[in-house]
Amino acid sequence: MANGQQNKDLLEKVFDDCNAIALYLDRFGNIFLCNKKTEELTGVTRETLIGKHWFGALCPDSSMEIKQQLFKAVVDDSFNYKRPNIFEGTLTDRTKNDLAISWNISPLLNANDEMEGVLLLGSDITLLQERETSMQNIDATLKNIISNIKEFALYAINLEGNITYYGMGAELMFGWKRDEIIFKHVSMIHAYDDVAYKLPFILEQVMQQGEYELETFLIKKDGTSFPVILNVSKFISSDTILGYIFMAKDITEQKRLEYQIFQSEKMAAVGQLAAGMSHEINNPLFVISGKINLLLANKRFGNKLKSDLKAIETQAQRIRSLVDRVLVFARKTPPQAVDLDINKVIKNVLPLLAYHKLPSHKIHIIKYFSDNLLLIRGDIHQLQEIFLNLFINACQAMEKGGTLTIKTNRLDDTFAEITISDTGNGIAPINLKNMFMPFFSTKKDGTGLGLSICYSIIKNHNGTIDVRSQLNQGTTFIIKLPFIKKGG
Fold first, then answer.
1. Residue 51: burial class (beta carbons within 10 Å; 0-12, 13-18, 19+)
2. Residues of 59-68 as b/e, b for ≥16 C-beta within 10 angstroms?
3. What integer pLDDT is reported at residue 420 of this predicted model?
4. What is the mean pLDDT of residues 362-366?
5. Mind listing the pLDDT tens digit for each residue in 382-417?
6. Angstrom distance (rounded) from CA 37 to CA 101
7. Given this model, what pLDDT does residue 416 score?
8. Contact by Cβ (8 Å): 480, 463
């Protein structure tokens, strides 16, 4: 008897002191027992609660709310069908705050499988839900940040190399939509050779070091490759490696700027070398030309010999002309600057095309001149030389005829932008990066100095020149020249 009483006292103490709402309902749903936690949260004494129907006691002001009605339906289901249930709902405490409660509903049956009552246990999960909501908000914020950084892409693969996560940043970078690439092999965005040879090395380094970073190339949906800084790390869950996480940063613009700096420094060095060589060539050339003139004046020489001397003189003049062009490229003298309307400069150059040998097929010239350009400051003769050179090149690239499009545009109050486009054969990618290098030419009879001189002149005008081209799709040159600064 003593042990039985002790067990009863212990059960009552456990029931009363447990850190959860504990209610024992009779078979009619009235509260038969409740504990201290119930009193604490509701602010109602157990004497008042006992004998009341559980729904009226726990939900006095919310009897019409849908969620409370669902709670009642779940408890009624346990009464009617003698089966346990769980439910997550809310309970208004004595301070009128809504608490998130996880309910465990357990029917109690007698030996004849008849309903005697129901035990309601409610755990306060408010803090847990707040933390979960906070983590969801943080996760959503991070995803939003990542998805709005266009030069970054986040994706993950499993151990078989299939893409298991593909963020919005990746969609912008690669061009593939998530449903087009998810669960596909990573070779869709990594070059085949990389997947076969480089990627296994990268993953091996990740296994040894925890993460690995390198510069490499990835592939867009249209097949074009682009440079990235790629950071690869392990994807671990419960101490098990499930795959790898890739963070790629597009460095196309960075590489373009680096190349421009390299090109500028290289052009400066070549210019210095060209100037020195030109002077060294000119000195003996003047002696050769002078001696030829003296020999031509000698009446004792026959016509055959004089004809040979004139051929030598012609070639000497050709060398001198080439040397003069090299000096134009290499010169560091500032332009003779005046205020200019760039539209008028271009319009005055176009008639000069008639005096040059161009393809006989019809070339259609389209002009779009902005009427709100500000004045620039420049050397009119040098600028005319640039535009004439580019117009001639464009026409020569359209051997079977085509369209030459000339546009001017105002970039804020900073630059005049001039684009010169043709519909010719285009430039091979391997040649594109060398277009402004001196002595580089794709023409059979070209000297390779025309575009180099254009580059040098535009640089001296504090401007920029860029070229975009694809084979069989034409070429576009983009020139930017600064407007005169206000108050300058």
1. exposed
2. beebeeeeeb
3. 94
4. 88
5. 888 889 889 988 888 888 888 999 999 998 888 999
6. 13
7. 93
8. yes
CA distance 67 to 481: 68
Work out the widest C-alpha separation in the chain, in whole angstroms. 154
What beta strand segments (E) does 311-354 contain? 338-340
d(CA 468, CA 426): 9
- The answer to whether 420 and 404 are in contact (CB under 8 A) is yes
List, as one string, the DSSP characters of 214-246.
Answer: EEEEEE-TTS-EEEEEEEEEEEEETTEEEEEEE
Residue range 107-137, pLDDT digits in tens: 998 888 888 999 999 998 888 887 777 677 7
For residue 261, the Cα-to-chain-centroid distance in whole angstroms is 22
- Averaged pLDDT, 326-355: 76
The DSSP symbol for 109 reads E
Per the listing, tokens 């050709």 go with 318
Q: Could you tell me where the DSSP H helices lie in 331-427? A: 342-349, 380-397
Closest CA to 58 of 39, 80, 73, 86: 39
Assess whether pLDDT exceeds 90 at residue 480.
yes
What percentage of the chain's residues is helix, strand, coil (to nearest 5)? Answer: 45, 25, 25
Range 53-70 average pLDDT: 75
Distance (Å, whole) CA 322 – CA 438: 12
- At 295, the amino acid letter reads L
Residue position matching structure tokens 């400069």: 345
In 333-366, which positions are buried (b, 16+ CB within 10 angstroms) versus exposed (e)?
A: eebeeeebebbebbeebeeebeeeebeeeebeee
- Residue 458: Cβ-neighbour burial (10 angstroms; 0-12, 13-18, 19+): buried
The pLDDT of residue 237 is 77
Over the stretch 149-171, which tens digit does the pLDDT of each residue have?
666 888 889 988 899 888 768 88
In 143-208, the DSSP E strands lie at 152-158, 163-166
In tens, the pLDDT along 434-455 reads 677 665 566 665 555 668 778 8
pLDDT the model gives residue 171: 87
DSSP 189: T
Token pair recorded at residue 461: 């005008």
Which residue in this structure is represented by tokens 């004792």?
Answer: 300
Task: Identify which of 123, 165, 99 has the alpha carbon closest to the alpha carbon of residue 35.
Answer: 123
Residue 357, phi then psi, degrees to nearest 5: -75, 110
Tell the residue number behind the tokens 């499930």, with chain if given.
Answer: 242
Domains of the chain, start order: 2-124 (3.30.450.20), 134-250 (3.30.450.20), 255-330 (1.10.287.130), 338-482 (3.30.565.10)
What SS3 class is residue 303? helix
pTM for the full predicted model: 0.41
pLDDT at 262: 67
